[in-house]
Design goal:
This protein is α/β, with parallel strands linked by helices. Helices cover 35% and strands 28% of the residues. The chain has helices at residues 48-65, 81-96, 108-117, 128-135; strands at 20-28, 32-43, 68-78, 101-104, 122-125, 144-145. Strand 4 (101-104), helix 3 (108-117) and strand 5 form a beta-alpha-beta unit. Helix 1 runs parallel beside helix 2. The radius of gyration is 15 Å and the shape is globular. It starts with 19 loop residues before the first strand and ends with a strand.
């Protein structure tokens, strides 16, 4: 699944990078399936709604397949409060069920923003390995929780 720029105009040099999303599924011994949504670019007011919708679909698809959903934010910049709200909307269902989306490898400003926002449906991990360790039931593995956990 990919989402391109919020408008048909090409990205300006020095301007925000277009948002691109790709999904990869794999099986892990002792864990089962994982579905990683890798995001790249800038989440801003112009594309936050589409980001939230794509992330919500990713979480739902992973749930139907019995996979663990993971969001890789290695190459993402959250440009506004709408970007954080988009994550909150997409993970609200998980939070209501006492679960959370594993968010891996965010840049420092994204990690700080997510931690400060305290989103109950989000758990932030420094690496994919630490998120998978926690998902396998071996404890929190250095998660920075957006809420109680």
């Amino acid at each position: 699944m990919e989402i391109g720029p919020s408008s048909p105009a090409p990205a300006r040099p020095g301007g925000p990078a277009p948002l691109l999303l790709t999904t990869a599924r794999e099986q892990r011994v002792g864990l089962g399936g994982i579905s990683v949504l890798k995001a790249r670019g800038t989440v801003d007011a112009g594309n936050a709604g589409r980001f939230s919708e794509a992330l919500g679909e990713h979480v739902a698809d992973a749930g139907r397949a019995g996979d663990h959903p993971v969001l890789d934010l290695t190459e993402v910049y959250l440009a506004c409060a709408a970007a954080v709200h988009a994550l909150d909307l997409a993970t609200g269902g998980l939070a209501r069920c006492g679960r959370a989306l594993s968010v891996v490898q965010p840049r420092p400003h994204v990690r700080e923003t997510l931690t400060a926002a305290g989103l109950p449906g989000v758990r932030v991990y420094g690496t994919l390995a630490s998120a998978l360790h926690a998902l396998a039931g071996h404890g929190p593995a250095r998660a920075e929780s957006g809420g109680p956990g």
